[in-house]
Amino acid sequence: MLLAGESGEAPVTPCCSENGDQKKNLKEKSDINIAALVKNEQVCEGTDNSDLPSCVSAFIEKEVGNDLKSLKKLDKLIEQMTESKMQLEEQVLTVSSEIPKRIHSALKKAEESKQFLNQFLEQETHLFSSINSHLLTAQPWMEDLGAMINQIEEIERHLAYLKWISQIEELSDNIQQYLMTNNVPEAASTLVSMAELDIKLQESSCTHLLGFMRATVKFWHKILKDKLTSDFEEILAQLHWPFITPPQSQTVGISRPASAPEIYSNLETLFCQLLKLQTSDELFTEPKQLPEKYSLPASPSVILPIQIMLTPLQKRFRYHFRGNRQTNVISKPEWYLAQVLLWIGNHTQFLDEKIQPILDKVGSLVNARLEFSRGLMMLILEKLAADIPCLLYDDSLFCHLVDEVLLFERELHSVHGYPSTFANCMHILSEETCFQRWLTVERKFALQKMDSMLSSEAAWISQYKDITDVDEMKVPDCAETFMTLLLVITDRYKNLPTASRKLQFLELQKDLVDDFRIRLTQVMKEETRASLGFRYCAILNAVNYISTVLADWADNVFFLQLQQAALEVFAENNTLSKLQLGQLASMESSVFDDMINLLERLKHDMLTRQVDHVFREVKDAAKLYKKERWLSLPSQSEQAVMSLSSSACPLLLTLRDRLLQLEQQLCFSLFKVFWQMLVEKLDIYIYQEIILANHFNEGGAAQLHFDMTRNLFPLFSHYCKRPENYFKHVKEACILLNLNVGSALLLRDVLQSASGQPPATAALNEVGIYKLAQQDVEILLNLRTNWP
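The structure corresponding to this sequence follows.
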């Protein structure tokens, strides 16, 4: 059966369509019968195929079993098995007759394929020999042709070389003719074309051609530049350039000559012609560059006409501020800084009104005033780079130089609109050696300032103590001076060109804050015994003020940008955990968080010490009140008018005096925290030490209620609308002690019958009890002595 099935499934191509259909029908019938017998043949699974008797007996056992009635199935089973046997025999005969035919067909096809392969091999051999023969024949032709191609390419290169030379000579001849006819504009335009050709040829390996081109451009550039420069300087001289006097007197001087329109026309013509020489001028003139250590931003050279306009000013600057001139004093940087600002101011009107329209007319994007300022700025940078090493270790001179440079930068940016992206003095101050010295000097003078401000007689007195509206924070002079110092430092370094330098200054500020906090802590410890004294309160106000200002600064755009820069630095150096980086990135924390947390901790400790001090005084004053005979006091009906317990007077007087004292000495926000902390302790103290420690008759409960609600609570009514809400334990205890007897009995029954259940909570809320627990209420009810 297995062999027949395997043979029937072999993928042999049928010889004819009839045989194919016949095989398909037989296979279908066989599959149907086999499928019908699958269930019966499962008995033989797991047995050896050679063990036929066992398989048959198992099959009979399964189909017949012990039931004799099942013997009726034998005829049907025999019939099915016989039919299956006949079909399998037919299938075997059919397949055995087809296999030889298929094998014969396969062998025939293989023979044909072999013949085709031999034919291809013969053709390949013939073609190979033909190709070799052709290559041998064509080899001399290829060599001759290659030589001719090389000659042609060589001739083409020579021709192109000659064309370039011809083009250069043609342009050179044109320039010469234009100059002979005094047509300078066309000569300048032709020189521009020649300079553009020079730029295109820079990638060529023809060094002699490049040299010839560069020499030709240089020759004509020098002739044109000298001629135009001479003419341009004459026009400027007629305009009395440079303007040494203020702008008000310039207009008078310029408007005098009747030929002013002609002068300005010639000025425009010459300016435009010089502007055309800019391309060729950049080929020969390298802009002055300071050493790389100053990290100046890349910038193009100043345009040629502005360079010529700057020349007389540059001569004046070098004459006065270099060499042994009396004006060249290293301790007076303000002289040359002020001179440059004066020059910029004197020429701004002329540049804006006369030169800028020319640039706009030719479509240039250059700003005349900024270009003029940029040229003068290079003089300042060169001067600073030369002077700073000479005074680096003289603290007073160096500090004076930095101050003057910062003032110069501020006026240059704010008044004259000089962009911070251009090269400026901050790049010189950012050089490593100079910058580290600046940081050192800044720290030194800041610490000296802190010493002087803390040792001042007015250190702990507010400058605005007599002005109520201004003195809300009650800031002592030392704290305000210190924060002003930090603000000034911020203004000094916020225009530094790189974030890394700004972050170093930020670390300096944080160090100064920490140092000032330590100094405040030291002074505070000296005043610990007088924690309610004026100086102690002034220190507390100072700590609160510094913390508040730092929290405000944390939301400032400048410090947020520094926070982002710090985040990038920390991420690169892996100096913070992922949680800290995430907090910085999400703005949950700030650059001042560490300082603020330390200041807040100090503030809390100082407030706690004050609260404890006042609380001790209040407890001492409350000793007589604790011993009051609450059991034997007369009832309210027996008294004409309720009055304050005499034993409560010391307590309330002490409390009133201290509240008034601290309200005057502490700022509003601190005093609010103080009295709320005090009330919290006082509420617990009265509840535990006075109420729970005594029993109360009707008169005692009424007296306690009067003392608390009419005398204690009103002491705090000036600071909040409902002070009783801060004395929740005392208020609710007074309610329970003063309930009428019937209500008290009913409440006690409800509590006993519904312990911990919603009805108990509802009953407590109904009489105004929200804070006290049920057990506390039961204890308070048991303190009453007026039960029936």
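The two ends are 111 Å apart (CA to CA).
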